[in-house]
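Mods, move this if it's the wrong board.
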Amino acid sequence: MIGLRKVGGVMVPFGCDGRAWLDSLHDEQVAYIKQLADDRSLPSNNLLWRWNNEIQLHLAFHHGQLASADQWHDILVAKLMPSVLHPVRLPDNDEVTYKVGRMKTSQMNKKQMSEYMEKLQAYCADSLGLILESEK
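Not the wrong board. Structure tokens:
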């Protein structure tokens, strides 16, 4: 693995093999840099599922809505988070955009998970009369 650090607006390699590896690239070779996603934490996952269970109980008791916590999770993620859209160019040169299900919380990074949980808290308070507590 090579490490790169931004110094004065320029990416500079560091680590014992970084400089040698970059110098070994030929003129026609390309190196890609990918920012690693900041995965959501286990505590935020546990909190989300505690909330999903509270939502399920609240909707069953106050609104007679019988669905599992898993089903409410699917419904609310689909409602509150944008779907993944993919553009496709067909052989007849027609461009089509299609929706691929809902965003998956298991693939969210910390920023996306925080955004979803904030939206979930607001939706439950405003629309369901349910206050979801972060601490218990």
